[in-house]
């Protein structure tokens, strides 16, 4: 009896402890929201900006809304001096005209690099330990024990830049904050409806319109998710494929600076996906050019073809000013930005389509030291042909030889490849795809065209990662094996015209295909080598060199036979987006080559639920082997990229281990 009494007493005590903990938790949440509401009432920008200006972006203000907890931890690795020389125009270059600057639907390398200067990411990878993440826009990222619910708190002192309008362009609804206030009214009503703590709180419509600019809020993250998940936004298909397991009912703003998302199932990649969220300004992209809000039924379509897409708007260190096709993208420093890393007053990103001119742009800058006018660029990576040209210069007084223009290298995460469209009759048979790989002089291309700026790869994983199967050997050049495989697959020269043929669907079909490439010297030379080899075994390869925009259009609509391209990857290995069969028939998906394989799907799906790293490595290697056996791609190289900089550029060694590898935010000019 006494024992039972003490057991009940202990149970009552434990219940009391749980109640107290619950009360404390609710009190803390209410306190956080109360603090946020307090911030919302501020009218002066000085009250909202962080204490940081131009130092290493880690300080106490970064953690003003959270303790050292959750999935984020600060990165104290120094990458930026405490007192850089400020001012001047940093000059960079890109090799083609961007199609647009709507960052959700445009994801080329050039646009992504501009986005890194124009936007504030939710989180950032640590500089050295790239599997760890540090806060940026988000100050806190928490996860439930079941890996289903992720909660965020974001900074209240990040603002959208003023949209880039032409001189004769009048958009009063943008300039006077009408749309920002309208969104403020909508989100206030939504918070009162869905979040009990706001039911009796006054939320003014203009609470985020401060000194002529609209503040970034959790609602902008939610709007990004709505557009990304909207099937009308066809160009977001590749991103959408990762978020297919979201429980939409659990995605919501819980305050102006807090939100949560929910997944349907406990999966390994939930942790990764939770860090990929971004922001889109609802006050701009939800509205037509005349200030009329789009109807919900068509907003996805209107978003993809939005009138503002040719220009950019961001919330990061540099504001988008303008873009002149074939000339340059202009950015300017945002003095309100609280996280630093924007010492230059302006950034000019020149469009130089002719790669052979890139070294010349560096020489122009080097010769402009001490002059007010500089028509060159301060830093750029160079292709293998240009690299050989500048370092092979016999003139010892050349700035590339005398040390005036310096250089270094970085290795990329990713791989180059030639993709064979399995939906075309030529390449539906893996024996034919193997024949193509045997017909390519890959080692010769690496040494003679790329000058050993890279290493061969055998599958869809970056070499050096524990997921990579080192036992799989690169496929050697062997035309006899290539010819034998084609014969085995039924391709013979039945009419002795020198071109192999095969009866397909009752019709004699010659083996003549089109090879799409980007109009770059190394791509053209690589394609020419393959063309000549295939000619010797009766296959006719027609080269089609295109500018990037046209190349991308045919790629996304899968209007190609073969294509040369590359994938940028990361240390977080996930095969779903590129390789799962369900994406093979999706418009504008990343499964460009129509790869369909039941066993591959099973491995991909098994990895989604596997948390043990050793087992994940084993599954990755099994997938690597399967892809190797199927040869949907002829795998080429992991790239070693040389980059060069002129005497004016300071702190050039701040190079990341993942994209973007070159970090212009770390750079500043010496004032000469």
Structural summary, described in words:
The chain is of the alpha+beta class and 672 residues long. The protein has 3 domains: 41-76 and 85-304, Dipeptide-binding Protein, domain 1, CATH 3.90.76; 318-410 and 644-669, D-Maltodextrin-Binding Protein, domain 2, CATH 3.40.190; 414-639, Dipeptide-binding Protein, Domain 3 (Dipeptide-binding Protein, domain 3, Roll). The chain has 19 helices and 25 strands. Helix 12 (430-438) runs antiparallel to helix 14 and helix 18 packs antiparallel against helix 19 (613-630). It is 30% helix and 18% strand. Strands 20-19-21-15-22 form a 5-stranded mixed beta sheet. The protein has a 4-stranded mixed beta sheet with strand order 1-12-11-10, covered by helices on one side. Mean pLDDT is 90; it is low at 23-68. It is globular and about 85 Å long.
């Amino acid at each position: 009896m006494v024992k039972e009494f003490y057991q009940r007493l202990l149970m009552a005590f434990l219940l009391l402890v749980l109640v107290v903990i619950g009360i404390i938790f609710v009190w803390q949440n209410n306190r956080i929201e109360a603090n946020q509401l307090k911030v919302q009432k501020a009218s002066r920008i000085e009250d909202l900006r962080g204490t940081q200006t131009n130092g290493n972006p880690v300080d106490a203000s970064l953690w003003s809304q959270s303790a050292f907890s959750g999935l984020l931890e600060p990165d104290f690795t120094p990458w930026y001096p405490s007192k850089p020389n400020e001012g001047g125009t940093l000059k960079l270059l890109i090799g083609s005209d961007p199609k647009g600057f709507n960052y959700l639907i445009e994801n080329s390398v050039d646009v992504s690099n501009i986005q890194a200067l124009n936007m504030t990411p939710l989180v950032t990878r640590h500089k050295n330990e790239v599997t760890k993440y540090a806060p940026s826009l988000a100050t806190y990222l928490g996860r439930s024990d079941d890996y289903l619910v992720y909660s965020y708190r974001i900074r209240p002192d990040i603002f959208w830049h003023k949209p880039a309008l032409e001189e004769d362009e009048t958009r009063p609804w943008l300039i006077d904050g009408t749309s920002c206030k309208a969104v403020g009214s909508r989100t206030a009503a939504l918070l009162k409806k869905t979040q009990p703590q706001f039911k009796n709180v006054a939320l003014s419509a203009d609470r985020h319109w401060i000194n002529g600019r609209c503040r970034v809020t959790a609602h902008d993250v939610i709007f990004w998710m709505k557009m990304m998940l909207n099937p009308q936004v066809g160009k977001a298909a590749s991103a959408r494929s990762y978020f297919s397991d979201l429980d939409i009912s659990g995605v919501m703003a819980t305050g102006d600076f807090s939100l949560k998302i929910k997944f349907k199932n406990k999966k390994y990649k939930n942790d990764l996906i939770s860090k990929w969220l971004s922001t889109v300004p609802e006050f701009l992209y939800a509205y037509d050019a005349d200030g009329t809000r789009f109807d919900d039924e068509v907003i996805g379509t209107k978003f993809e073809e939005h009138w503002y897409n040719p220009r950019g708007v961001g919330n990061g260190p540099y504001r988008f000013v303008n873009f002149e096709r074939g000339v340059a993208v202009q950015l300017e420093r945002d003095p309100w930005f609280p996280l630093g890393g924007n010492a230059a007053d302006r950034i000019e990103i020149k469009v130089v389509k002719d790669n052979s001119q890139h070294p010349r742009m560096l020489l122009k800058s080097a010769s402009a030291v001490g002059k007010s006018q500089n028509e060159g660029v301060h830093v750029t990576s160079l292709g293998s042909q240009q690299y050989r040209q500048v370092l092979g210069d016999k003139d010892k007084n050349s700035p590339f030889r005398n040390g005036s223009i310096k250089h270094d290298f970085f290795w990329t995460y990713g791989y180059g490849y030639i993709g064979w469209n399995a939906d075309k009759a030529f390449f539906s048979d893996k024996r034919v795809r193997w024949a193509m790989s045997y017909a390519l002089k890959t080692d010769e291309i690496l040494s003679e065209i790329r000058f050993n700026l890279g290493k061969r790869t055998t599958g869809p994983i970056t070499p050096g990662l524990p997921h990579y199967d080192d036992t799989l050997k690169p496929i050697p050049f062997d035309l006899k094996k290539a010819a034998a495989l084609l014969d085995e697959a039924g391709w013979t020269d039945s009419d002795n015209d020198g071109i192999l043929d095969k009866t397909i669907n009752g019709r004699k079909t010659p083996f003549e295909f089109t090879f799409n490439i980007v109009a770059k010297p190394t791509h053209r030379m690589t394609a020419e080598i393959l063309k000549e080899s295939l000619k010797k075994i009766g296959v006719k390869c027609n080269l089609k060199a295109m500018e990037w925009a046209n190349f991308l259009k045919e790629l996304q609509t899968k209007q190609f036979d073969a294509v040369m391209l590359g994938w940028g990857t990361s240390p977080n290995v996930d095969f779903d987006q590129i390789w799962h069969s369900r994406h093979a028939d999706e418009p504008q998906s990343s499964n460009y080559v129509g790869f369909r394989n039941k066993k591959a799907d099973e491995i991909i799906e098994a990895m989604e639920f596997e948390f043990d790293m050793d087992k994940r490595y084993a599954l990755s290697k099994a997938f690597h082997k399967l892809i190797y056996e199927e040869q949907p791609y002829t795998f080429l190289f992991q790239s070693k990229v040389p980059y060069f900089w002129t005497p004016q550029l300071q702190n050039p060694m701040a190079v990341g281990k993942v994209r973007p590898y070159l970090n212009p935010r770390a750079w500043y000019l010496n004032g000469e």
